[in-house]
């Protein structure tokens, strides 16, 4: 877990190296080998995985998880998978032929923002908004939990923590404004100059520009913040650097204005619906965006982003990692099959009716339509007349279906391969799918896709479709179905070009889960997610009264 890295001198070092260093402090006799590299590199291929008894995942993105899942399925190695999102987490075990694998159920796409990017090299508004939320916690909340916190005994003295810790007297407006001014100078001027002096940005696309100290002095005043202008227009206006400085000063004044408010220092938590907190985050994120040359956002836009950011929580990661270890003990004890002795565990935020925060359920069986477990057929709707082979490989095979080094065959003819044979097929890449050799890809064409690095082969059934609804996604293709059974050609193209074959849903659409009909029509119990004390985001265990339970959508932010 990345909490191993929560020391300033570890920033920039490989996670695996630091994890080994910290773990050996707990147990110097442990044998730990750290590798720093991409898990999809050839050195970590089939032979590498075959040497292990069990694989345990602590990954933070879907692409890497899918790759490890496929290698473990191919080598028949047990995989202990886990993930967390805020206070929620899941742990489950994967064994080929016994349990569902990571790809048996569709996964929502989640974005993860590395701490090093947020702290040092932001290039998107969301990076600055995350930073601003951490800044709010540093100033008003539990500061040690903020990613911006720097301990006093660190090897590199902090240039802003002494200023942050120098709290002003409650009710002394002059002292409070000076405190706000000093914090602004420390965070947006002195700290940036320090990073520049260390050559942190010599290869950066944009070299940050510190906020001029004179600009801070001129605008650190009381009663001039944009939010005090009246009306609601300020919420949709984009605040410049001067406005942001005034708004931050106003927020600091409000916190320290009364003894009651100041008494809450150290316990404030960000809430997007609290005006003071959201105004501070909107202003601080825009001021940081100003420093790094990033597009500024209105209060309204910043609020929409800030409300969707789920922070990593160290205790959730620790609990989930501990549950992975207990599952490992069960596997190594060999007291039964994986399906018999291991469990799917939900870590929830609120206690269940039984007073539990960890809910265990039996592991799911492999899904018949999973093309990883059972080499099922994948139906892809795509415009074969306008899509090139390059786009098909990059967007469909690699990004959506997770292949690493695919080889593509139409009938007995090979039209694409990677590695040493890549040059032989480079001329096919710019060609449209329908114009490829061996008859091309048209409506009803069965395409074989093989990936030696993952020991996986899949049949892709092509459905030609002219146009796609932009409201259902920006992609010009759709994985419309995954099915088991013998390959067969699809029905003729629908009369309307934007229609989908009956029964085939869009992978990107939200599926509505409906309760099973009650035999009596009365006395039907509510789903557990509606019960008081249960977490609505927690997956339903088998038999929970739902027609389908996509429980393996493990979050990917740990």
TrEMBL record:
One of its GO terms (cellular component) is SUMO activating enzyme complex. Residues 380-468 form the Ubiquitin/SUMO-activating enzyme ubiquitin-like domain. GO terms for biological process: protein sumoylation; protein ubiquitination. Residues 1-340 form the THIF-type NAD/FAD binding fold domain. Residues 505-514 have a biased composition (Acidic residues). Pathway: Protein modification. InterPro entries: ThiF/MoeB/HesA, ThiF_NAD_FAD-bd, UAE_UbL_dom, Uba2, Ubi_acti_E1_SCCH, Ubiquitin-activating_enz, UBQ-activ_enz_E1_Cys_AS. ATP binds at residues 15, 60-65. This is SUMO-activating enzyme subunit. It comes from Rhizochromulina marina. The lineage of its organism: Eukaryota, Sar, Stramenopiles, Ochrophyta, Dictyochophyceae.
């Amino acid at each position: 877990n990345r909490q191993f890295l929560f020391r300033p001198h570890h920033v920039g070092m490989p996670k695996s190296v630091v994890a080994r260093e910290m773990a050996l402090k707990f147990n110097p006799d442990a044998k730990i080998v750290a590798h720093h590299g991409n898990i999809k590199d050839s050195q970590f291929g089939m032979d590498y995985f075959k040497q292990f008894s069990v694989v345990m995942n602590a990954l933070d993105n879907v692409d890497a998880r899918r790759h490890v899942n496929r290698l473990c399925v191919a080598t028949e190695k047990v995989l202990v998978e886990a993930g967390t999102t805020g206070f929620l987490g899941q742990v489950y075990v994967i064994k080929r032929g016994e349990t569902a694998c990571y790809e048996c159920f569709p996964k929502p796409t989640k974005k993860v923002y590395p701490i090093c990017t947020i702290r040092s090299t932001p290039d998107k508004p969301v990076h600055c908004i995350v930073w601003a939320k951490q800044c709010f916690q540093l100033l008003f909340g539990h500061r040690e939990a903020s990613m911006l916190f720097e301990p006093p005994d660190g090897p590199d003295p902090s240039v802003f923590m002494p200023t942050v810790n120098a709290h002003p007297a409650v009710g002394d407006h002059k002292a409070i404004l000076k405190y706000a001014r000093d914090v602004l100078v420390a965070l947006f001027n002195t700290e940036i100059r320090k990073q520049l002096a260390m050559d942190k940005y010599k290869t950066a696309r944009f070299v940050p520009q510190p906020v001029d100290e004179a600009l801070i002095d001129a605008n650190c005043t009381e009663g001039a913040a944009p939010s005090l202008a009246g009306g609601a227009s300020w919420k949709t206006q984009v605040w410049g650097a001067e406005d942001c400085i005034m708004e931050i000063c106003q927020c600091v004044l409000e916190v320290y204005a009364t003894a009651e408010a100041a008494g809450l220092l150290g316990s404030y938590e960000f809430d997007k619906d609290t005006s003071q907190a959201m105004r501070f985050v909107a202003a601080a994120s825009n001021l940081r965006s100003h420093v790094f040359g990033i597009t500024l956002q209105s209060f309204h836009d910043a609020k929409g982003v800030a409300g969707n950011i789920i922070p990593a929580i160290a205790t959730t990661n620790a609990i989930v990692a501990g549950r992975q270890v207990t599952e490992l003990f069960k596997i190594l004890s060999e007291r039964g099959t994986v399906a018999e002795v291991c469990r799917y565990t939900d870590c929830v935020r609120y206690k269940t009716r039984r007073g539990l925060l960890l809910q265990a359920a039996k592991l799911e069986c492999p899904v018949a339509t999973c093309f990883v477990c059972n080499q099922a057929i994948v139906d892809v709707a795509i415009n074969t007349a306008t899509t090139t082979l390059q786009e098909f490989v990059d967007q469909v095979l690699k990004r959506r279906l997770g292949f690493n080094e695919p080889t593509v065959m139409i009938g007995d003819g090979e039209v694409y391969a990677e590695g040493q044979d890549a040059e032989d097929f480079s001329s096919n890449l710019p060609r449209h799918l329908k114009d490829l050799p061996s008859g091309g890809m048209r409506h009803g064409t069965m395409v074989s896709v093989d990936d030696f690095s993952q020991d996986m082969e899949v049949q892709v059934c092509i459905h030609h479709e002219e146009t796609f609804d932009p409201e259902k996604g920006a992609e010009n293709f759709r994985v419309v179905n995954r099915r088991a059974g013998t390959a067969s050609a699809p029905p003729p193209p629908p009369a309307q070009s934007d229609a989908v074959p009956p029964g085939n849903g869009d992978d990107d659409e939200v599926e509505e889960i409906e309760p099973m009909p009650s035999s009596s029509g009365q006395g039907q119990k509510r789903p557990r997610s509606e019960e008081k004390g249960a977490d609505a985001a927690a997956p339903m265990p088998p038999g929970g009264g739902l027609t389908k339970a996509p429980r393996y959508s493990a979050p990917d932010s740990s």
